[in-house]
Amino acid sequence: MPSGATGHGFEHVAVVGPGAIGLVLAVRLAHVAGGPKVTLIDHDAERARRLSGRPIRLSSPSGDVEAMIPVRLAPDAPADLVILATKAYAARGAAAGAAGWIADAPVLAIQNGLGVAAEVAAALPHATVITGVMYQAANLAGEGAVRHVACLMTHLGYEGRGPDATAGEVADLLNAAGLPARTETDITPAVWGKLLVNAAINPVAALAAARNGEVASRPTLRAMAQAVADEGQATADAAGVALPYPSAARAAIDTARETAENRCSMLQDLEAGRPTEIDYLNGAIVRIAEERGVQVPANRAVTALVRQVSAVQKAGSS
What we know:
Elements: E1 12-16, H1 20-30, E2 37-41, H2 45-52, E3 56-60, E4 63-67, E5 71-72, E6 81-84, H3 88-102, E7 107-109, H4 116-123, E8 129-140, E9 145-157, H5 165-176, E10 181-183, H6 188-208, H7 212-217, H8 219-238, H9 248-258, H10 265-272, H11 282-292, H12 297-317
Parallel strand pairs: 1-2, 1-6, 2-5, 3-9, 6-7, 7-8, 9-10
Antiparallel strand pairs: 3-4, 8-9
Helix pairs in contact: 3-4, 6-8, 6-9, 6-10, 6-12, 8-9, 8-11, 11-12
């Protein structure tokens, strides 16, 4: 347990990224009884100033809460746990930018897709990087406000080896915050399990400007999502990854139905002209499939289409 830490294992947690999940984590952790100090890290100095001047508000089916949380470009005091809550494409840059103050604090990387933890570890060679696979649904409801609409299990661990005491302490802290968490003997199946579901739903919904439920209910969209998932499962099999379910296609369609009203993050990113996580989802499947000799035409197609739409949106907004 870190020196001077609370009974939950940590004295000061820095949450990097004021997006929806970052706000959920910051507010939930701030309400842990006897828990750590929480600082929210934002690269935008003006936004950080605005957010620091008022409570961060969280609404959820279980009730509304708020917390006054300092928002800084860097923590005022050393953090003994850092949670990277950025998008996948921003994680490496955020880690590199924080290298001067992270020191040897453990870092929890909770991004979607493949390869993020390795990029973070390369940027922070002296830090212990824990991979987190989170099943949280949240949407920003204005600056400094978030709707937390679903709270399922978070899986923590490392690729190819079992958890250590640090990962266990992070799980304990998340559980104390009301965010169910557990450690895994190998995080790889959980990473791939979420990857294939996201890869099947997100680009199909984004390209069709559809809610998740339409991916399950509209035959053309369902067929494309199933094809993407089947190819992803074949790639996982070729890579020797044991998935946490028997059928990726079934898992994806079931998830689309369960989150029927959700507008996935990739759709929101395209509409806002922001970068997407396509290279860490379907793009990663394509790269690994090439290495393993697996044919993945559906994944190639959606990767190319999302990149093209994203480029057009970016050009139109410039």
